[in-house]
Write a structure and sequence with these properties.
eight-stranded mixed β-sheet, alpha/beta, globular, 12 helices, two-stranded antiparallel sheet, Rossmann fold, 41% helix
Length: 304
């Protein structure tokens, strides 16, 4: 973590106010590492181990801190655990550049085994949503609930291509100001001052003073797109295996996940429900965390 505890706390206080939350006090998560196979995996644990656990999986080029406000809002009722997936955040990069769905499924399984979770709720966004679907199909008996945010077996190329172009286009930008400028062009919903602080979780400063992203760019360059699309499409054949209550969430302004795809996905699940979060694009937890938390609370209360 590039922010000091004091800076991190101030950042959470500022972002929570801007998002419309009112917390009596801001609690920081504990940062932990576990060895899963050949990878050292980093995660944030927001405490309260006696409460029902929720595991959060972020989207591509993001990291565990994308869930900070969601976890902070839910931590009094749930044990919130946010994982840095392989090649992201402070988790190791894959030495062989293997970012296949199978490798990431093994990561998720190994991680929850290593920290001792038997049954839990799984929440995933974008890349994390696909990995969550894969886990739910492979291990349906281990989930109490499942939440899929702005992704599904079908891909909308204009939106997904825009994300890939942004990730590749900003990868060689070495100044904070340049990165902020490009990030705001990509997502103008963000506050520049808050964005500057949040980027400290996503960047590492180099000895020469320049900045590099923590994610492994090879995930976007080496990944066989046709194979990946085929793997995603194959998930549709296993949807009936997902027995737990499942919430499908779409950002109302998303260009990645279409409303008709979300409705269809929910209808194909044994116990699926579809909701739309207003004033949010693809990164729902960043654009409108307050309304996302409200939907999660409604869903989890009814499901349990």
């Amino acid at each position: 973590m590039s922010l000091s505890p004091e800076e991190y706390r101030e950042h959470l206080e500022a972002t929570s106010v801007r998002a419309g939350f009112s917390f009596e006090g801001v609690v920081l998560p504990e940062s932990h590492e576990v060895q899963v196979g050949d990878l050292r995996m980093h995660y944030l644990d927001w405490g309260n181990k006696h409460l029902p656990p929720i595991v959060f999986l972020h989207g591509g080029a993001l990291n565990a801190h994308t869930w900070d406000l969601v976890c902070l809002a839910l931590r009094d009722d749930y044990r919130c655990i946010a994982l840095d997936q392989r090649g992201h955040g402070d988790t190791d990069w894959a030495p062989d550049a293997d970012y296949s769905m199978g490798a990431q499924l093994a990561d998720t399984t190994g991680f929850v085994d290593k920290i001792g979770l038997d049954k839990f709720t799984l929440v995933g966004m974008s890349l994390g949503a696909i990995n969550s679907l894969a886990f739910a199909i492979a291990h349906p008996e281990r989930l109490d609930n499942l939440v899929i945010i702005d992704a599904g077996p079908e891909m909308r190329r204009p939106g997904s291509s825009r994300i890939r172009d942004f990730v590749n286009g900003v990868a060689d930008t070495v100044t904070i100001e340049g990165i902020i400028e490009k990030a705001l062009e990509f997502n103008p919903r963000r506050d520049p001052k808050i964005l500057r602080r949040s980027l400290m979780h996503a960047l590492r400063q180099q000895p020469d003073g320049s900045w590099k992203w923590k994610y492994d760019r090879r995930r976007f360059q080496v990944l066989d797109q046709e194979k990946h699309r085929a793997e995603r499409a194959a998930l549709a054949d296993g949807l009936q295996r997902i027995a737990c209550p499942t919430l499908i969430v779409r950002g109302a302004e998303s260009d990645v996940f279409a409303e008709e795809d979300g409705i269809c996905l929910a209808a194909r699940l044994p116990d699926g429900k579809f909701v739309t979060v207003p004033r949010a694009g693809h990164t729902v937890q960043g654009d409108n965390p307050k309304d996302l938390v409200a939907e999660l609370r409604r869903f989890l209360t009814k499901a349990n």
